[in-house]
Amino acid sequence: MSATALTEDQLQELRERARREAGPFTDPRIISREVPHSFAWASAVLGRPYGGPRSITWPERYLLHIAAETEPTPPTRRPSEPTQSREDGRRYREQLAADWKAISDQVPVAAEVRHNYTSVRHLEFYRQGVDHIYLLEELHIGRIYRPANNSLCYTPSRARYLREFPPLAAGDIRLPDCRACDRVLKRIVQVAAVESTAQRGT
Ligand SMILES: [Zn+2]
Prior knowledge:
Elements: H1 8-21, H2 28-31, H3 39-46, H4 58-70, H5 86-104, E1 111-115, E2 131-135, E3 139-141, E4 144-146, E5 150-151, H6 179-201
Antiparallel strand pairs: 1-2, 2-5, 3-4
Helix pairs in contact: 1-4
């Protein structure tokens, strides 16, 4: 069973509509929303493996938006049902794991991806319910300090929005898509580069 009940004809029609309608400019109302449904559903609609919100173009994001309007409730896969392509699924998970390793290698302490379940409406610089880089140990590099067991984007002023981070279910591999975490990670990479240059200079 596919992750979508949309027929190939419907998908073709939606893809053509997206090409016609998306236009050159992104729609913030769509972009700011979470990508609908599951990774498997997004992959089925896109016609290629979906690797998270930053892996797609604006017309593709628009496509997912209109496809979700057409299919607000995709079929749920029964656990016992063999997946359509085990091999594809395995390769996809391997790719995700490799992508996550490349990201986590840049974090100086042990970290994993966790979803934020803290319930809040909306904040200017912070989007609820995204997947964060979650620190299992205290991090201190340059002027960046984070206590252990917090997201990388943690700040005392945002603490109340960053409370609930249960571990992911076993086998659930995700890539972080929190923009604030990403910004902090870029700062860490910069600090690490400066420090290693300074060490070489002495
Ligand atoms: Zn974050």
